[in-house]
Amino acid sequence: MNTELDPRLLSLLVCPVTKGPLTYDRDTQELISPRAKLAFPIRDGIPIMLPEEARQIEG
């Protein structure tokens, strides 16, 4: 089930590792931190901002 992330929420969230900006990947339902190379999952519309829950990404 893909749900939209509230743009206001996205504007408030930062990466817990780098404190940098996040981008929303609608297809994978994740918040991406390019600097940390981490993807944080969104479950039932709730971003899970724990580094141990994130997956490593390439690039």
TrEMBL record:
Pfam families: Trm112p (PF03966). Signal peptide: none annotated. Coiled coil: none annotated. Belongs to the UPF0434 family. This is UPF0434 protein HKD24_10300. It comes from Gluconobacter vitians.
